[in-house]
Amino acid sequence: MNAIHNADLDLNLLPVFDALIRIGNVSRAAEELNMSQSAVSHALKRLRAFFGDPLFLKTGTGMQPTPRALELRQPILNVMGTVRSELLVREGFDATVARRTFTLCLTDMGELIFLPRLISRLREAAPGCTLRTLQLPMDQVPPALESGEADLALGSLHAMPQGLYQQQLFTRSFVTIVNRRNRAIGDVLSREQFFEMEHIVVSMSGRIQDAYDAVVDELAGPRRIYLTTPHFLTVPMIIEQNPQLIATVPRELATKFAGYNSIRMVDTPVAVPPFAIRQHWHPRFQHDAANTWLRRLVKETFDTHPE
């Protein structure tokens, strides 16, 4: 059998497809692969010839995959995940010279909490590496971690499917945010007011039972839910324009939201236990050198993260 390619397809081209489908940018893919942009473009030309399809189309937001590329995405990512986790594990990972992009599954809240400190640490420890974030529906997170499309999922992932490894980083408590113009609410939000008012809840799946603060309903009974949204960062702006709405969010987020002149936070009048912020990864990458290094960096960065 010839070294690593058959009569038509050179398997050395698969890492190029893998990088382009994950990153969506030729220059950044070239950096991760330690190749020139022209070499990546040439490899893409050969892939297009073999599959008889453009595969990636240049748009204002990057290289967008065609339907054929999306069909190829999972099998090629599976192959590359196997190569990384089972064949290259013994090569080790030298962060000081490595050039690659780490991909994290994060919500918009997760980006606000994690990225500022993590970027600072990564620049110092791995100057040749960069970051990319994904926001995926919950059921798509495990396949992304299994294939290697994402390295870690960070946050309080309510209803996370079984089968992933996880590690607790720190805990957070909930508070409620209200509009300062709502004069019916004093310094203390009463339990009666809490259940009489209409709420905004954040749920990546769109289902109320998967909301980040669903524990409130589990412990104290159902609230009056007016709006369910997958975005944390729009919540204060909605409450600013709709003083009759309130929302229960992590304290760290509420502190940032209080920067809006129209938003203030009050204690949630329901005894809610702190929730854990964790990092999750797939068992296939438990012994992967780069993934292990990244998990250690995240753990060290947030192990003593203050409330």
Overall description:
There is one protein chain. 39% of the residues lie in helices and 21% in strands. The chain is α/β, with parallel strands linked by helices. It folds into 3 domains: 1-74, Winged helix-like DNA-binding domain superfamily/Winged helix DNA-binding domain (Arc Repressor Mutant, subunit A); 88-168 and 282-307, 3-Layer(aba) Sandwich (D-Maltodextrin-Binding Protein, domain 2); 174-273, 3-Layer(aba) Sandwich (D-Maltodextrin-Binding Protein, domain 2), CATH 3.40.190. The strands form 3 sheets. A 5-stranded mixed beta sheet has the order 4-3-5-12-6. It has a 5-stranded mixed beta sheet with strand order 9-8-10-7-11. The radius of gyration is 23 Å and the shape is elongated. It starts with 13 loop residues before the first helix and ends in a 5-residue tail after the last helix.
Question: How would you summarize what this structure contains?
Answer:
The chain has 307 residues and is α/β, with parallel strands linked by helices. It is built from 11 helices and 12 strands. The strands form 3 sheets. The protein has a 5-stranded mixed sheet with strand order 4-3-5-12-6. The chain has a 5-stranded mixed sheet with strand order 9-8-10-7-11.
